[in-house]
Amino acid sequence: MHDYFPNERNDPNYMSTTPYYRRIDLPAGDLHVFAADDLFHAMGAKVLEMANNNLQIPNIRYMSYTPDAHVGVGTCIGTTAVWGAGDGFVSPSIVGSDIGCGMRVHLTNLDAADLRDVKVRRKLVKAIEKRIPVENHARGFFSDIRLDDVLRKGLHGLPNKYVPDGYTPRKATSLTHVECSRFRYEEDALNRIPEPLWHRAHRQLGTLGGGNHFIEIQALETDEANRGIAERWGLRDGQVAVMIHSGSRAWGGAVNQYSGSEVAKTMHRLGLGTGDPKLAFAPLGSDAGRTYTALMKSALNFAVANRHLMAYAVRDAFKEVFGTQAELRTLYDLMHNYAGEESHGGEELFVHRKGTTKALPAGHPDNPEPYRETGHPALIPGSMGTSSYLMVGAEGGGRNYHSICHGAGRVRSRNATKQLVKVDEFASSLRIGQEDEIVVNHKGLEAILDESPQAYKDVDRIIDSVVGAGLAGVVAKCRPLAAIKGV
DNA sequence: ATGTCC
After folding, report:
1. How far is the CA of A180 from the C1' of B4 (A)?
2. N or C, which end of chain A has less CB nearby within 10 Å?
3. What domains appear along chain A, each with residue ranges and CATH number?
4. A406 tagged catalytic
5. Model confidence over A381-405: pLDDT tens digits?
């Protein structure tokens, strides 16, 4: 693979059309990159090599990177890849290993001033920790819920007691804001997953998981560019919000394991392959493709229900600390690792998002009804100690199938970060020991050193690129006050 | 990401 970072003037294949967008003619097809120049050049040649392999999958219509793109297994995190629904392919590699990984945001009726005392933040973190296990082999507190119901019906499979605002599919309340509270699929595929994995997944309901997953208590800062939308969404400056970042836990892993071998067999039988043996894909209409797609959707149901259950536990923790008048209203739940059928420009397509977030603009018919006029919230996490963002799609996002970034994007590996970053540096970036410290549920930070902000790009610059490219706008910045992390 | 090698 030759160098794809040539001098722009010397290479006729290198096209730059705007400061935040370029189309790159790779040997296997076109790659669209939405990023400021320096962020693009920082991505590295491996990122483009991976795109070239992904573009070798037959019938691909479109592939792009967001500014937070970085190397992943088979496919970069930060990829949007589109096929036609009729002659399309599905790729477990372009969905990613943590199927249904995504974000959920709840709005409270509290103000940042209510959490100014560091002791209050500590009390809240402890109260959350008590209800949401984060340790290795963690077991959740929701054994009364049937896993089968969750996998088949998503949020609609939860008992009423876990839906505090009285949501039922017939009764429109705040939960109708939630993106795809139920994914439908060919349920026979569930039989592929062996019994022990069902038990494991059942035990994990209501647990956070490790890596970049987190629960954060944040203070909102609305952006003047979209203050009208902020008001319509019920946001106000200084308002305390809860952000949850988690995925489908071991269930998603089981889906990858048990449908992955069938996908590999299908590729072999059909003589399919690319430059990367780890890049897995199958025709949408093949048995393997259908099985994977069905099981993937079961994992999406698991992920959205799991985030919902954690929010239920957090709501309970808030009531313990702040009294029964404390509220946690659902703003939105939106994943950034998935694939599914979507209609764009009147065409039925199959869209993959791996570490990219859908952000529909105002008026788009696919917005849930309560967000039809404003566009739905696009939930973007920052790294530890840095702000997260509530975004809204812009009209111009249509040229990227309404996909934006999914966060800061890793800039160095977990191992490299542990070598490079010192615990003291991490602690000072969280202002540990100061009155305004970001309270974390770990006594020592060694266990989560690989999550220090030094491991990530600057999320503010990622957001600048997304806004600069005309894909989305900022509605509010979410400043962290406290964080719960797994290991 | 993941019961990260039952």
Report:
1. 30
2. N
3. 14-411+456-485 (3.90.1860.10)
4. yes
5. 999 999 999 999 999 999 999 999 9
